Amino acid sequence: MNSNYRKALYWEQYSDGVKCKLCPHECIIKNGQSGICKSRINIDNILHTKAFGNICSASIDPIEKKPLFHFLPSTKTFSIAIEGCTFHCLNCQNFLISQTEPTEISKYNLTPTKVVEFALKNNCNSISFTYSEPVVFYEYMLETAILAKQSGIKTVMISNGYINNIPLLEISKYLDAANIDLKCFDEYIYKKLTGGKLNSILETIKTLKEKGVWLEITNLIIPQWTDNLSSIREMCKWLFKNNLSEVPLHFSRFYPTYKLIDIPHTNPETINSAIEIAKEEGLKYVYTGNIANENNEDTFCTFCNKLLVKRSGFSVIENYILSGKCKYCNNEVKGIWS
Ligand code: SF4
Q1: What is the number of domains present in the chain?
Q2: Do residues 329 and 301 touch, judged by C-beta distance below 8 A?
Q3: Residue 276: in which H helix or E strand, if any?
Q4: What contacts 17, CB < 8 A, 6 or more positions away?
Q5: What DSSP designation does 268 have?
Q6: Ligand 1 pocket test: which of 26, 86, 133 has the largest number of ligand atoms within 8 Å of its C-beta?
Q7: Model pLDDT for residues 274-290, shown as the tens digit of each residue
Q8: HSE of 286 in the Cβ direction (CA atoms, 13 Å)?
Q9: Which of 15, 51, 98, 318 is most buried by a 10 A CB count?
Q10: Are 106 and 55 in contact (CB under 8 A)?
Q11: In this structure, is residue 232 part of a structural domain?
């Protein structure tokens, strides 16, 4: 057996195979076969993960790149990934690592202990599970997050949010922050674009918020797919209704890629309209991504309206938040600031 294989968590015996209970696909996997994510394999009717330590991508990033704008600004995060994904998004920017199985292109072998040691040695305040889909390397993420917590390093999950509630509750005990892709607000398009179900993502968002994991949301606006402004308004209404008005929302610009190479870039006017809609619906921190757009990268006080954090790309240029409050009027700014 491959040395990176480990017995998986969250599965049960099922007629002539096993049923994986990690994500809402709930794959039924026969002996010798793998699930939809290609990351979990049935060996002699015991479910194994193929993704434990065999990292395909590792780098030190500014935390703003995740994107996380209200979480330890100006700090470094040690970002790691193992191949695989529960989704098959037509627009995936990272399809070379998300649509392969974990044993195909791994570059490094790092135990959870080594990951934490590396982060400490390089003055990273956090470890980010990112680039591919961290849910498919759940066991590795969990063990690393537990060790990181013991060592005083924060952990971040950048995810499509496609995970069942029981494993989510367990990892939430150790995660400090998450950015969840909310790709659109239409079940039919969600299925067609990603292979997943919108409702499951909404449940993940609510659970992370309830469990106190710092949460930010990214919404990629793809022309002809996810640029319907009525649907964007419905999404914003839902966020407001579910007490998520202070969760930063990042509208991101689409660039032609993978199976949507013939779709044009998002028109900046559409992104501006989405921002207006989000503000009209009461969302307090709305940002843009993948686009140079002055002011829409900056944070303003929701009470006195003064500039609090000026950003340029992934850099923080000015920061007037003191102990989580506006320097000018003492209004609380939601986030984890130090
Ligand atoms: S984690 Fe993978 S194997 Fe398990 S249910 Fe989801 S797609 Fe299937």
Answers
A1: 2
A2: yes
A3: helix 268-280
A4: 28, 29, 30, 31, 33, 42, 45
A5: H
A6: 86
A7: 999 999 999 999 999 88
A8: 21
A9: 51
A10: yes
A11: yes
CA–centroid distance, 95 to ligand 1, in Å, is 18
Half-sphere exposure (CA, 13 Å, Cβ side) for 152?
4
Q: Which residue lies with its CA nearest to atom 6 of ligand 1?
A: 23
Cis preceding-peptide flag for 67 (omega within 30 of 0): yes
Query: What's the CATH code of the domain at 278?
Result: 3.20.20.70
CA-CA-CA-CA dihedral for 128, 214, 312, 119, to nearest 10: -30
Q: What is the mean pLDDT of the chain?
A: 96
Residue identified by tokens 């303003």 is 300
- Nearest ligand 1 atom, CA 84: 2
Task: For residues 164 and 292, state if they share a domain.
Answer: yes
- Whether 253 and 221 share a structural domain: yes
> What is the span of the domain harbouring residue 192?
54-297
* % of the chain with per-residue pLDDT over 90: 94
